[in-house]
Design goal:
Chain lengths: ~160, ~130
């Protein structure tokens, strides 16, 4: 594995309401799909910066079903959540869902289309996020600004306190 | 509630940058300029579009501050300006970091599952 080229994450911004992310992973798409949809697997990797865990990961994987993730900062106990509704679920191929942060300071739906395409045993994952406005995109992006998601949610906690 | 973190100081500049980058011809022009300055004529040649159309794209890029054009020289060569691009990528950087971390963990998890699957292949075959 170490002899292979480093896998690159490509991020494009086709418009001011869209962010498209592409990454190849070296696994068949059925397994990659599981990693994106099975709580016991999601909890192992969808964690953002180091030092966060995911104590809540509820997934009802079907069109109209919902999901809820809660992240927990292991050093200071800060928590924040993300919830959403699946609009389309095509096993091993495509997931379309809408999502929003639990404590959102800007009400904005983000529609995320995640597609899995397999070739020669590797899977290209494409995640396209469509925000309903530029302000919504900025609000969502702010969650990752400066010192990462942790810092801004710390500040959010301060503001809400 | 006041907006958090990321201020609005450079919002307009970022808008102009992202709008300019949203077009594939303009991205191709920037890619060409990354390897050195070029005149409008030189920039128009790889594209199946007219010189006025390229000039129009150049004006958008110039307004976004992504390129500058020499005033004095006859051929007015275009030059890539790195600052707005750096600003735009800085805007995405924490997002990129977060997802690079996520995908690195995903790689490790998928490796683990695949090596487990290899080890338990015989057991699985028996079960079938």
């Amino acid at each position: 594995m170490s002899a292979q080229a480093k896998l690159q994450l490509a991020i494009a911004t086709p418009s001011d309401r869209e962010i498209v992310m592409t990454r190849v992973v070296r696994a068949p798409r059925a397994l990659v799909f599981d990693a994106f949809t099975k709580p016991e697997m999601i909890k192992r990797w969808l964690l953002g910066p180091d030092g966060w865990s995911m104590p809540v990961c509820d997934v009802d994987l079907r069109a109209g079903g919902t999901f809820h993730y809660v992240w927990h900062n292991d050093s200071d106990g800060t928590e924040f959540g993300l919830h959403g509704t699946y609009r389309e679920v095509t096993p091993h191929e495509r997931i379309v869902h809408a999502e929003n942060f639990d404590q959102s300071w800007y009400p904005c739906d983000v529609v995320v289309t995640t597609a899995f395409a397999e070739r020669d045993g590797s899977t290209t994952v494409t995640m396209a996020q469509l925000f309903d406005s530029r302000e919504g995109r900025d609000a969502a992006m702010e969650s990752g600004m400066e010192k990462g998601v942790a810092a801004s949610f710390d500040r959010l906690e301060d503001i809400l306190a | 509630m006041e907006p958090i973190g990321y201020g609005h100081r450079s919002d307009e500049r970022l808008d102009a940058t992202f709008t300019a980058l949203a077009d594939p011809t303009r991205r191709a022009i920037l890619a060409r300029l990354a390897s050195g300055e070029a005149s409008v004529l030189e920039l128009a040649s790889p594209f199946a579009i007219s010189q006025p159309a390229v000039s129009k794209h150049l004006r958008v890029l110039e307004r976004a501050g992504l390129i500058s054009r020499s005033r004095d020289a006859q051929r007015r060569p275009c030059r890539l300006e790195a600052k707005p691009l750096a600003e735009a990528s800085g805007w995405l950087e924490p997002y990129r970091d977060r997802w690079e971390g996520n995908f690195a963990r995903l790689d490790a998890l998928l490796d683990e599952f695949q090596s487990d699957a290899k080890h338990s292949k015989r057991a699985k075959r028996r079960r079938r």
